[in-house]
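Homework help board

Subject: predicted structure for assignment chain

Our instructor gave us this sequence and asked us to write out the predicted structure in token form, then describe one feature. I got the tokens but I'm not sure how to describe them. Can anyone check?
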Amino acid sequence: MKLDKFEVMFRTLLLRNFSNIILYVLLYVFLGTSYFSVSSWLYFHGFLITIYSILILVLDSYFYQKYRLNQSYREIFIRSVLWTFFVMVLSYVQVYQTALDVSLVVYFFQNFSNLYSDIPNFLYQWKLWQWLSLTFGYYLVFTKSVLDPKKDWIKLTVCILVFVFFRCGLDLSNQITNQNSNLPISNHRFKTNLESIVGKPNLFFVLLEGVPRKHLSKLKSRYIDYSQLNGSHFWVPMPHTSKSLFTWMTGVSQLTNSRMSINESFINSNLPKELELKHGYHTEMIYTQSLYFEGMEQFFPKIFNVVLDKSELQRRYGVNHSSFSWGMNDRVVNAAIKQISETKRNPIFLFLGLSQTHSPYFVSKTNSKGKWNSPYERYMESLSEEVEVLDSLISYLKENFSRETILILSADHGESFGEEGAHAHNYSLYNQETDVPFLIYFVKSGQVYIPKLGSSIHFKDTILNLLETGPRVMDKTVNTNFLKPNYQIDLVLKTWNSEIQKSWIANQKKYIYHSDKDLLLEMDYAEEKRTPIFDSKLKQKVLDHIYSEIR
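My token output:
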């Protein structure tokens, strides 16, 4: 008897709330890429997203039934909030093409004070079908319109077909594939090989935030023609800031961890420590973002003599330099560098980390037209301002430093703007997120060095090898010195906090494995010739090598 009563109640609820239920189900079922495969569908529909969807649907049905006879503003508010959170979470998975897991949820709540500023850019990436779904859901909540599946089956079928069209058809037509255009390679003077660095010059290592090589190569400055970067390739193993900074200083990628795994060996063996102990460098770090993020405060203050991050820069110079959620107006570094005193005895190693090109892409010029346009246009405007900051830095070094000073320029990772369906960074291993600029600029002579190939895992070895001019140079470091003519890259890459993509770069080839599709692609370094690998033996060989480096 109780079972019959429960069955009647369930059927009644299902029919009365049928319109909302079908909308929830459609969004859940069509979550993922437009390219359909069983493995891809299962990847995006993991345990957490499924439980979350069921929980939201149960709560929505409960409040619908509770206030069925007497609709109130409380019901409308609660169900609207439930619907909003449901669409937002599923859209996050959709936009950033990554599965939802517990670590990602914990990360979001721990760092919400920084992440909230990325919401406008996130909403900008929504497709038409997502906005229509959100609006239609609100309409159903406010009106309690009900489609009877028996009487209104034609209307129901049309609604489903319209949803499928907007969900799949527009995604396919709007999909951006590869934006790496064949830009002409500059004929201006630059060198690819460097045997050694004579004496002990100052080393200023400037790390841009989220700048791929292809975007910087579109710009020129008073001192450097960045189009010279075309034709070179320099990769980071994981497109995530804290992990990338750790790799630059230690030469270790730690692909198995989403956070830096710090122990005494890394505290004692890293680039600034070895420059200090072996070559007498005074080491400083100026970082216009906060170090109190993902444990960076536990590492960098221990390996540099002096560290200034956003909080200290705000305290000293905040009156004249504005800030935003992720960082500051990078012109603040001009004031900070003036406090560095050059001595005859100790050369300086300065790690200068910039922030303006981090989402939401800070633009300081109030009259800038690009500030309020698309994220990409605002990003390029922000990057243009960074070039101006670099020019100011070079001018100051030329005029005020007597010792030879070498400016080393690169980036922590790149940034996606729709290429291969990716946005921002972390979840794509294509070149727009992993192929960063790298050049060495001798301030006094203006000579530029750009390696043909390189990786941040070999930065530490390369710099130390260039400074070791005597018989102490070890033959094994030649293979990890990307400014030597016989350098060969062999690098495994992985997406941050996600298994969606893995990659291997070696022997003039780049492989990218899409875990969600069980698809392995082979391509050249420029990613122009992409070929799916169907040979099971070759596919297994590539995957075995990748997993041997990750596990």
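Reply (TA_rk): Your tokens look well-formed. For the description, you could write something like this. The longest strand covers residues 202-208. That's the kind of observation they're looking for.
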